[in-house]
Amino acid sequence: MGSSMASDELLEPELLEPELLEHGLLEHGLPEHALRVARTYSAAADHYALGSLSFWNRFGAGTVSRLPLQPGQSVLDLCCGAGASAIPAARAVGPGGHVLGIDLAEPLLEQASAKAAAERLPNIEFRRGNAISTGLPAASFDAVVCVFGVFFAPDMAGFAAEMWRLVRPGGVLAITTWGPGLFEPANAIFWESVRGLAPSLYKSFNPWDEITTPEALAALYARDLTSPARFWDVVLGSGYRATVDALDQDQQDVLREDVLTKLSSRSISTLRTDVVFGRAIRRTE
Ligand SMILES: C[S@@+](CC[C@H](N)C(=O)[O-])C[C@H]1O[C@@H](n2cnc3c(N)ncnc32)[C@H](O)[C@@H]1O
Is residue 1 part of a domain? Predict the structure, then answer.
């Protein structure tokens, strides 16, 4: 039941300063995909809380209810939006726990903060930042949650691996995505109408369709949690180190890139760790 929250000092360098945003400075520093998301969901905020979108709260609460959260624990909610999962998480961990919600859309964060204030939740904090690169220390949360957010990352596998890095040993990572056929039959009608009006916009932004099955989500967990980069840690922390250290820096970089690229391209996610135990019992006579 650790509650090792990152300090503000550690978080701030990677997060976006509102003053700078006002001057448009940091917007330029955001990658294109993040800018698009920030603009899209900042605009969507004016409809986000309508009754016809009550599914945000339903599935946020549904995600949290499946977690083994205990009072006093720390939770990180990445792509937290208006707090659909962060608020139930804050209730679950109680006043002794802590929830940090991070999102790029300031208007949604304002809604989230207003809900937390209305409920007088003392243990929840919302910050604007890029969920993909928070700069938070490894293993610092009992639970990391991402509801309907993972598919916005250009490198979903990398994002899942980053989330996993933030989970403490014994902690939990919860990723929720949409299932197949989202909003059908209206979805198909919407896109056909768009195609008629502006063909270049046809399915130009629908990343949620990229990961819609339990198998795909399980594969994301399996692939990311055993990221090839982990093998390089094994290399550097074991007897392979002698070989690596015998190379100059350029050669080491080439070797690392070569090995990790091959592991990735062959979809290698598990490594053998067989052990041969020897045991001899000495006779008494
Ligand atoms: C579909 S909404 C879901 C929000 C919330 N989790 C919920 O279930 O209501 C996706 C959210 O992800 C946020 N988002 C997407 N990519 C992000 C990123 N790289 N960093 C921070 N927030 C991001 C968007 O701003 C948006 O609020």
Answer: no
81 lines ligand 1 (CB under 6 A): yes
Q: Between residues 185 and 281, which one has the greater pLDDT? A: 185
- Residue 201 and residue 158 share a domain: no
Instruction: Kindly tell me if the per-residue pLDDT of 127 is higher than 80.
Output: yes
Q: Which atom of ligand 1 is nearest to the CA of 208?
A: 1
Closest CA to 130 of 154, 95, 99: 154
**Is the same domain home to 88 and 162?**
yes
Closest CA to ligand 1's atom 14: 79
Amino acid (1-letter code) at residue 83: G
As given in the structure block, the two tokens for residue 16 are: 């976006």
Q: Which protein residue's CA is at the shortest distance from atom 27 of ligand 1?
A: 81
Alpha-carbon span 207 to 205, nearest angstrom: 6
Best probe residue, ligand 1, of 40, 79, 206 (max atoms within 8 Å of C-beta): 79
Domain-embedded: residue 216: no
77: its two tokens = 């909610």
For ligand 1, say whether the CB of 105 is within 6 Å of any of its atoms.
Answer: yes
Question: Are 202 and 127 in the same domain?
Answer: no
Phi, psi of 269 (to 5 degrees): -125, -10
Of all residues in the chain, the percent with pLDDT exceeding 70 is: 82
163 with 241, same domain?
no
Segments forming the whole domain that contains residue 51: 22-179+275-281
8 located within any domain? no
Q: Which residues pair with 141 in a beta bridge?
A: 167
Give the pLDDT band (50/70/90) at residue 2. very low
In this structure, are 139 and 29 located in the same domain? yes
Q: What is 12-51 written as a DSSP string?
A: GGGSPPHHHHHTTHHHHHS-HHHHHHHHHHHHHHHHHTSG
Q: Is the pLDDT of residue 23 over 50?
A: no
Asked whether the predicted pLDDT for residue 218 surpasses 50, the reply is: yes
Domains: count for the chain: 2
